[in-house]
Amino acid sequence: MEELLRGWVRADFGLDLVSLDEVGHGADDAARLWRGRGAGGESFAVKVTTGGTPAGLLLTAHLADRGVPGILAPRTTASGACWSEREGSRLSVVRWAPGDRALAGGMTGAHWRTFGALLAAVHATGVSGGPAGLLPREDHTHDGPAAFVRTITDRLRRPSDDLLVRALAERWHAAAGELSALSGRADELGGRLRDATAVEVVCHGDPHLGNLLVGPGGEVWLIDWDDAVRAPRERDLMFVLGGVLAFAPVTAQQRASFLDGYGDVGPDPVRLAYYLCKRALEDLDWAARVLDVRRPVEERTAALEIVGGILSPEGIVPIALAAARRAAG
């Protein structure tokens, strides 16, 4: 695959790579990522994906051109495109950010303030015309993830000899009441919001710590724009004001530092609660990896731990339900 990919990059982007190493950080089954190195020692993120929206690449080029810090513009093809098409997939090349993963624990107060300022600059981008006009719009529906949760619930009622499936079933059934309440709250809140008006902004769509890279001088880079969307700002802010990662909760001090950079928010509690409920439903798709016996045991075990975190007292399911209760008054 690497030799084929190097040929594509050379033909489409005019870039000769001396090496390609696949990176396994992502949670997206529709995408594969490599770190490529040029003859001069420079590094590039080479991505092949069938997911998300290509408008995200156009958007990052636009944001970088406007001077928004922390945004890496894609390398263009000979025809000036931000990506090429290869065997039904989208191929893109972006300069490799010279930072460390925020999930490794290197986020200082300065980084949180920079992150806040960066997201504020993204949200200040106009949504009419240009790349922003090509983004999908938040429609406050969640039929797909809600149906998935029901399907998994039915599947786990059947007995299994697989130890990981049995462990998943035990945790899933123990949380049955919360999962039912989660779907119900999402239905209720989504119905209210579909009939409401709101100011839309350009949203990254997935700005959790796994999509942040940090530098030693307080620099922050926001990567992976495949889920970019036009939506109310709470769509992004829930990742800080609510928190979605049980193993990396956002502290009060980190939240305050973020808001120092972002500015006054005054979030709508109903929207914040809905996006948390929707995200919780979406994140439960990690259960599919546990059920897929074709995957390596190590990968399935890691997925089981993630599901356990989602359902834990510190996880996004109880966080979303608590936000829904607050939104209800």
Jot down its keywords:
329 residues, alpha+beta, Phosphorylase Kinase, domain 1, Transferase(Phosphotransferase), domain 1, 2 domains, five-stranded antiparallel β-sheet, three-stranded antiparallel β-sheet, 12 helices, 10 strands, transferase, Spectinomycin phosphotransferase, Kinase-like_dom_sf, transferase activity, Aminoglycoside_PTrfase
Mean pLDDT over the full residue set:
93
Oligomeric state, counting identical vs distinct chains: single chain
Strand order in the sheet with the most strands: 1-2-3-5-4
Residue runs with pLDDT of under 50 for 5 or more positions:
none
Overall, the morphology is globular
What is the tally of beta strands? 10
How would a textbook summarize the main sheet? 5 strands, antiparallel
Structural class: alpha+beta
- The CATH C-level name of the largest domain is Mainly Alpha
> How do the helices and strands follow one another from N- to C-terminus?
HEEEHEEEHHHHEEEEHHHHHH
| Structural Rg | 20 Å
The separation of the N and C termini measures 55 Å
